Each structure stands twice: as structure tokens, then as C-alpha cells.
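Forgive a beginner's question, but might I ask you for the amino acids of a protein and the C-alpha cells describing how it folds?
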Amino acid sequence: MSRITRRNFVFSVGALSAATSVLSWPALGQAKATGGRVVVIGGGFGGATCAKYLRRLSTDIEVTLVERDSNFMTCPFSNAVLGGLYDMDFNTHDYSALRDEYGVRVVHDSAVDIDPDAKKVRLAGGSTLKFDRLVVSPGIDLQWNAIEGYDEAASAVMPHAWKAGEQTTTLRKQLEAMSDGGVVIIAAPPNPFRCPPGPYERASLIAHYLKQHKPRSKIQILDANPTFSKQPLFEQGGQALYPGMIEWVGEADGGAIDGVDVKAMTVKPLFGEPQRGDVINVIPPQKAGAIAEVAGLTNDGGWCPVDQRTFESRAQKHVHVIGDAAIANPMPKSGYAASSQGKVCATAIAASLSGQDMPDPSYVNTCYSLVGPDYGISVAAVYRLGEDGIAAVQGAGGVSPKDVDSSFRVAESRYAVGWYQSITADIWG
């Protein structure tokens, strides 16, 4: 991708405005209201965005959001909690604005079954919701036992912390309890997985904490991939801020692991001897959230094929899948991408319910990573719909330049916080 320049950055923001502009498409507002019932499963970046923007597009659409938890804790900035920069309150958002300001009916329950033919969703509490359109935004589930010995019980000892909340707190407490001179192992999963830069930002911010409090400690990243997102930038930042503290072992050098021993606190690489860690963060392979599989929306790889124009499932009519669960390549599985997809999906549904053609969609992804509290890096991309589906717009977006002075990195760290506050306010505010 190209280097970010002021011109490219402005173009990215302009493309984001273009993506958002379809949501205020005048024809929708002028159309005769036909209403309709839309049920959205999952109140994360994709689902909450879709629910809110459906109501913004037409208050005649009855929108019900099904989300188990009363508060949503974001994975973005959860690594900053591990690094001691924030506490979990910063990452926690509720649904009061969606309910009170936008008229979304919020049901705190779990969807356990979907009947696409009868257009019904059954909830764990026993009730049933009827729909004209259904949006499934279940995020990811972890593939327990894909790594020998790593099941849900093992995650209490070797936390994954890839769903923010209790697991984040567990990993943070383990870091606090570790002795100076201890070894932290982070096992990164094979692609595709949620938040491609996440494991490497995590290593950086854990290193920030250790440098302050346990400077003789080491971090080893055992990676199932040959390369990783923003690798030159993370490596440059690591060398500048934490020289000698972080070691990355890629797939070619035996970084992938195929087993763990919880009692011995070891991980077993595909080849080589088991390695012991004082704190072990195992991020296992992933798949679409369970309800997607129950509903028959997934392929053999565990992800959901969709029409990338409308995000309607390739497997079931009138059912849309957005966010991490959907196959939307080349868009990454990120919170910002999920929100962008939620807006496009809302537009597609509103247009369909009003009997109109959907405008051509645009999609955006922006991802900031903190290497340290005053050291930020970023990647941005703009996408449009091509003949073969979603395609990146050449020359738009890009990655942070590599060789810049410290003021640039400080500025990007401030932009990272502003980005997070802006997108969460747009979704849950």
C-alpha cells in the first residue's frame, strides 16, 4: 500500500463520507414508508451500527437488536488495558442511546436458532422474534481443541483475551503477578482471524508495562504466519522503545504451535522442544460465531459467504451477515470494517423494504495501533464494489511512513484515541 500523505488521508476521509452518504440517500427519505421488521443478532461494531442506521434511514422500520450482554466491551483498546494505559471502563459501552434516542428495541438474550423459511429467531429465554430481514453479526468463536490441550478450561490458565472482558482482566492480573525476569509467550493464530495487527500491538503494549515494572522480562511471539500486518512498523517501534525485549518467531522458523500443557505451562511448537512461559497468551484459530453455524450460514472453513453488495447470505435469502463472520475479502476482520459493512447493509435493507434500487456502495477500513503510549501507527484502505466483489481503491489510504520523527508517532497515538472515541460515539453514543 502507498505511504500516507495529507492528500491520501483527505481522500480516505472523503471516501468515508461517500460511504456514509448512501445512508442519507434522499430517495429513501422521500419514499413512501413501508415499514418492515428487522432483527439484528449481535450488538458489536457491525450489529449495533446496522441497527442504528436502519432507524436513521427510516423510523418506520421496526428494529430489534438481540445482544446477550447489557454492556459491550471492545477488543480495540483492550491491549491498552493490558499495557496499563486504560482500565476496562474506557472500553465499555451500553445500549441506552440506541434504545432511547434511536428507538431500537434492545433485547438482552442469546439467539439459539434461526428458521429462515418461517422467518423466526428463537431466543435462549424461550421467546421467538419474527422478521422480514435478519442481520447476523455474531463476531467470532474460538476453535477449542484446534490446538491440542487448549480447550475452554485451559483458557482460565492460558487466557486468549481475544474477547474483551473477563479474559482481558485475567491476563492483566497474570502480568502483574509475574516476577521480574519472567517470560511472556504470545501464540498468534493462522489467518484469517479477528484484528490482524492485534497480537503484535499486544506484545508492544505488554512490553511497555514490563519495561516500567519488570524490565528484565522477555516476550516471545510464536506466530503461525510467515509475516504479519504492519510488520516493518511494529519492528521499528519495538527496536526503538523495547530493544531486546520482544522476539518474533515466524511460521518458517517453527512459530506455529500444535499443543499446550497447562500444568507444565509449556507450548509445543510444530517442531522443536516445548517452551515454558510464566504467562502464556494463546490466541487459537477462529471461525464465525456459533449462531451462524447453527443457521447453516457458514462454509467448510467456518466463515459466511455473502453477496458483497448487500451482505445477504449466499446460503439463505433475507438473511444478511456482517462483521468478522462474513467473507468480505480484501476487507480485514476489524471493528471499523464491521461498522462500514453495517452501514452498507442497513442501506441495502432499507432500499429493499422501500422497493428501491440500492446505490453503489463504498467501504472503508482504518486501523490504528499503539506501539507505546506516545507511538502510534496506522493503516487505512478504501474499497468499492468491482466485477468480482469488493476491491481496494488503488492509491487510496496506505500505511504510516516508516522513517519519521517522534512527533509524527506522537500525533498518530493521539489520532488513535480520537479514532476510537469517534467510532464508538458513532455506534453506541
Notes: DSSP finds eleven helices and 23 strands in the chain.
